[in-house]
Design brief:
homodimer, 367 residues, alpha/beta, Aspartate Aminotransferase, domain 2, seven-stranded mixed sheet, four-stranded antiparallel sheet, 15 helices, 13 strands, 16% strand
Chain lengths: 367, 367
Amino acid sequence: MSCDFLALANPGVLALHPYQAGKPVEELERELGISNIIKLASNENPLGLAESAKKAIQNQLSQLTLYPDSNGFYLKQAIAERFSIQSEKITLGNGSNDLLELIARVFVHEHDEVIFSQYSFVVYPLVTQALNAKAVVVPARDWGNDLQAMLAAITDRTKMLFIANPNNPTGTFLEADELERFLSQVPENIIVVLDEAYTEYTPVERRSPSLAWVDRFPNLVVCRTFSKAYGLAGLRIGYAVSHPDMAGLFNRVRQPFNCNSLALAAAQAVLADEAYLAKSVALNREGMGLISAFCEKYGLAYIPSMGNFITVDFAKPAAPIYEQLLQKGVIVRPIGGYGMPNHLRISIGLPEENQRLLQALKEILAL
Amino acid sequence: MSCDFLALANPGVLALHPYQAGKPVEELERELGISNIIKLASNENPLGLAESAKKAIQNQLSQLTLYPDSNGFYLKQAIAERFSIQSEKITLGNGSNDLLELIARVFVHEHDEVIFSQYSFVVYPLVTQALNAKAVVVPARDWGNDLQAMLAAITDRTKMLFIANPNNPTGTFLEADELERFLSQVPENIIVVLDEAYTEYTPVERRSPSLAWVDRFPNLVVCRTFSKAYGLAGLRIGYAVSHPDMAGLFNRVRQPFNCNSLALAAAQAVLADEAYLAKSVALNREGMGLISAFCEKYGLAYIPSMGNFITVDFAKPAAPIYEQLLQKGVIVRPIGGYGMPNHLRISIGLPEENQRLLQALKEILAL
């Protein structure tokens, strides 16, 4: 081409690796010449769309020529009531990815330092890199966030810390007391982003009172999503809870119509649908039990997980196993890109999907 | 609060004015104690959702627990075929707002200069400000882009130019030959963003061959939306066409799941629905004729518009007229914020909505 655009783009952008997305399942089936592929790769809810969400969507269809409600008035009201917080603390996002990016863009400046753990969600290094900030990757402890080491990594250039609890892609969990101690030690001029995408899968009695912490730690932002336990990944909707002044900043930068009308309506409906959430969680617990028991029976190591996925250590390069599973119509997630080449991350599916996975593993590993 | 977040945030963010969104119509009806409000304020399609789009949405509902196709494979294929371009030139966005922001973030650096016209889309100054870049606002000519003045405003700090055609909020139009001459004079190291959100409403024979220009002008990006003539504002979906290398950059920075599954499916369906598009355009032309004729009959000045809205000059502060229309249940758009305090922007509605607007104006203005 006649003009070198690579030279014109911002330096942070240039260093980004292009995102390699998977093909649609239909395309893959065509390529492999097989049908009935099951996907246990993206930590999606296997239960199918909640009827409550479906009904809410149907009721909104006639309104789709209109722009969404920019304030997300009703959904914010529902979240505020559900968790007994002020509506002014809430920022809505086009999935929690949108929020993670937004938060970084508000606070992180070129050359600032951003701290996160080894083996943590791929979006943290991506947003850091896009802003041409410096990623400070702290070695994991037992595959999870090493909070002491993260505190020790703080310098006067540090602007932000990302912590996922439970952690993705490893499923590790931080108890409330250790997290609280950590928050009280982080200087107030450093923003802590606590990513609780998988929190609904954790036992209620062990969950951190993170939303209440926002009052004590005004540098804390908690992010959550409707993509996992609430089953709305395809619609893109998540929320952040922070001090109202901070939410005010996020709402200045947020695209005015970042959340679509159907996502707003469906999220409001499913938030009130306690039966769906309970069923999601129970199904997950059952599948997790089944797959862990299988691993234990056959001597496969795995990382105990509080999420809706389990990360299994095959003690040898896992890529060939991933390929063989694919040939048998089971898609799981290779995580070599996370520095875990011997592991595969497996999302918990429906009982019959889990059985199919285990049968395939038995055949491949000759168990 | 114990920590001053305003001091921590990026300077560009701090200078942003918080976005003031309108209330949901239901809330407004409750407040004003009236019902049956009509909204001619946001340039939305009055025709209602296309049946083709509705069917596509219904077919996708069972898939909503899954993440969207990150590549937008089928929609890109449909756009590529429809306009005879390569799929690799396309970037999909969560509405064209997402694309305008994305393009700016890829190329514009702090303190760069960004040129756009007086009376142009509010998103251009917003994205410029958020990046702490310098907005260079060129005085309009006859309420539209003054291309000669914009060329003259270029300096060695200029990184980007935004041009809307047709222009919003004024509806002015640039002919293909003047736009082509302009593009051939802009230095190649300056990105030109041509925002064609309203292009489908313009007569085919006067439209610029903008997508083909991308081959001749590799610094050109054309943005379009499904929010207007295609009637999908509530779903959030738009596309940009550029040199494939540039699209590659955009796709590095784009959130991997920025477009939701229903938007992808509905856009693909409505793009093939030529009857819906033709009906949208015909309805708009008819309403535009009616309102222009009214203005001429009663001596109200208006800006001739190629969009789906008409901007009327009341020759005195228009805010009281806006308020009186509101009391009569007709919402239009005051554009004092654009520096046009005597004008109101009125979206073309259904025949009965247009009649109601004109009746209300007659009463208010005692015509």
